[in-house]
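Before relying on records like the one below, remember that each one covers exactly one chain. Contacts with other chains, cofactors or solvent are not represented anywhere in the record.
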Amino acid sequence: MSEAAQTAVKDDTERLETNAVSVHFEGLAALEDLSLSLGKNEVFGLIGPNGSGKTTFVNVVTGFQKPTRGTVLLGGLDVTGWSAHRIGRRGLARTFQAVRLFRELTVIENLEIAAVGMGLGRRQAEKRAFEILAWMAFAHKAYDQADTLPYGEERRVGIGRALATAPRFVLLDEPAAGLTDAECDELMQLISRIPKDFGCGVLLIEHNMRVIMGVCQRIHVIESGKTITEGTPDEIQSNPEVIRAYLGTKSEKRRA
C-alpha cells in the first residue's frame, strides 16, 4: 500500500470494517473472505465487473443479507447479522440503484421522513432537510413533487435522504448510473465534500471510472467475490490484474 493510502488509514479512529466476509448461495460463493476498512475522513471506492459481488457486499454491510461467515464492525461494534433498521439506527445509511423515493411526496418531505425515522421531531427534521437541500444547491426544488423530477435529480434526492439520517458512514450504490457528464461532475463535487461537511465516511460502488478515480482516496477491486487488490487511484489504474479484470485495454483505461 502506498504512503498516501497508509495515511488515510491512520487518520481515523472510528471505522467501518469487514473481516473475511463470505456469502454462499447453495454452495456457490458470491463473496469469499472480503475484508476492507474505511474511515470517516475518506471516500473509499469498491469496483468490479458486473456480478462480482459488489451489491451483495453492500447488502451484508447494511443488514439486508446475512453473511455465511465473517464479521462487520461499525465503530468497533460487531453488527454482523443485525437488521437493516437496527444498523441504520447505529449510523449506517445507503442509497439504492433504484432510487425508491416516495413519489407522491415533495422533495423536502422525502428528506424529512428519513430524519424523523432517526428520532428527530418534525420541526428539527424540516430544519435538517432544508440545510441538506441548501448544501446540495437544491433548495429551489424543496416543494416539487418527487415524481416530477428528472432521473438525475432523483438520484441527488436519494443521496440527500441518506444524509438526512445523520449517518456515520454512507454507502452509495452506483449513484452515477444513467447520469450525463455534467451531472456526473456535479455528483463528484457533492461526494467529495461529504466527509468534511458531514463527518461521514463514504463507500462508493460505481461503474463510472471517471467518478471513482476522481473522488476516491483508496479503491478496493473485487472479481468473482474475491479481492484482487486495493490502492490509490494511480495504483489501481496501473495494476495489470485490474486492467485485465475490469478496466479493459489501455485505450479503454485512458478513456475511463
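The domain at 3-99+168-255 is CATH 3.40.50.300 (Rossmann fold).
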